[in-house]
Amino acid sequence: MSTLEDKILGEKLHYYCSSSSEDEENDSGDSDKEYNDVKCTEDAAQYAAPAEWDGVSNNTGPKGVIKDWQRYKQLEAEKRESQEKEKLQLIKKLSLTCRSALDEEKEKLNETDPDLANLLADEFLLEYQKQRMKEMLSKTEKLYFGKVIDLESTDQFLQAIDEEDKSVTIIVHIYEDNVPGCETMNGCLISLAEEYPHVKFCRILGSIAGLSKQFKKFGVPALLVYKKGQVIGNFVHMTDHLGMDFYSSDVETFLIEHGMLADKNCVPLIISKNENKTSDNK
């Protein structure tokens, strides 16, 4: 195989008819000259004929090499550009395919297991919190009391405790008509029932509840607190804790300190606002 230098040095053989042959070969005849003229004409016609470039050039001169290199770089750039376009089209196609597949999977998951679909959502935590709040608010709307309920028999007393929702706190005031502090406690519970509409406040006479005379004399006013059918608080003779002259705020503070009422300062704003809205509607 010839080197690039050989091709460059030998380019005259391909493109020119040597004029020095007459000086070097003075003894050549006219026939040889005619033959050379014909040969030059054929070669010129051959190289003058245009043809589509197939990536290989016979023009091996310095300018030809540069042009070939420039053409090569141009084709290479065009090839890269074409490949980039194909890549972009492929990426776009794949992304659309993936997006479509994901949408189908999401729809299928929503139909078969909506809870799991929610877990996979980008804003799941926020939506979960909102949903839980809505459930809590919906539940509290159903469990609305807002007043003191009079229990007129032991059966009503048992039903008020055993048949109530397990999430409801029930505060029962056991009182007697002519015992100091009982009437004041009744007035305080009326006020608290309005402030805590989702707490069930009840009252019952000690005589109806079947309590002993001694308890009716020394145990009232008494507050019994129930939840889930169980006693969670038992406070007798409340005047020992609050004195003979007390207010609803004193009873509220006492119940909060003993964990019987939720501190409103710890209740989320959305719930407290909803309670106020519900009470207004009532």
From TrEMBL:
Transmembrane segments: none
GO biological process terms held by the UniProt record: regulation of G protein-coupled receptor signaling pathway
Keyword Phosphoprotein among UniProt keywords: yes
Recorded superkingdom: Eukaryota
UniProt KW keywords: Phosphoprotein
Alphabetized InterPro entries for the sequence: Phosducin, Phosducin-like_reg, Phosducin_N_dom_sf, Phosducin_thioredoxin-like_dom, Thioredoxin-like_sf
Keyword Phosphoprotein in record: yes
Domain Phosducin: start-end pairs: 50-274
Family: Belongs to the phosducin family.
Protein name (database record): Phosducin domain-containing protein
Record organism: Lasius platythorax
